[in-house]
Amino acid sequence: MPERTATVASTVGLHARPAAALVEAAAQQPVTVMIARDGVGPDGGRGEAVDASSILSLMTLGAEYGSVVVLTAEGDGAEAALDVLAAVIETNLDED
User: Fold this and answer.
1) 38 belongs to the catalytic site
2) Rounded to an integer, what distance in angstroms lies between the CA atom of residue 56 and that of residue 61?
3) pLDDT digits (tens, 9 = 90+) for 25-76
4) H or E element, residue 37
5) Which member of 8, 14, 15, 89 is catalytic?
6) Signal peptide location in the record (predicted)?
7) Comparing C-alpha atoms, which of 87, 86, 92 is closest to residue 4?
8) Domain extents for the chain?
9) What is the CATH number of domain 3-89?
């Protein structure tokens, strides 16, 4: 299963405007993209993955500025979808 890591660049993390932008980008993809925080699992691994197109799931992810997240997807178009969403996450959407 293809995956990408990305570091949250928005100063408010994946909340408000950055979360909405990610949800919008995820909804436009031909595959379902899952997102999980890295380094927060019980063994230092990944936390629970949530659907990147769900605003409520993203808000409960707790991905703050500088958090590393892991995106996964499967199927035709998965690699391109991961590239698009990683770029959204790595952009500071709080800049004026």
Assistant:
1) no
2) 9
3) 999 999 999 999 998 877 878 889 999 999 999 999 999 999 999 999 999 9
4) strand 33-37
5) 15
6) none
7) 86
8) 3-89
9) 3.30.1340.10
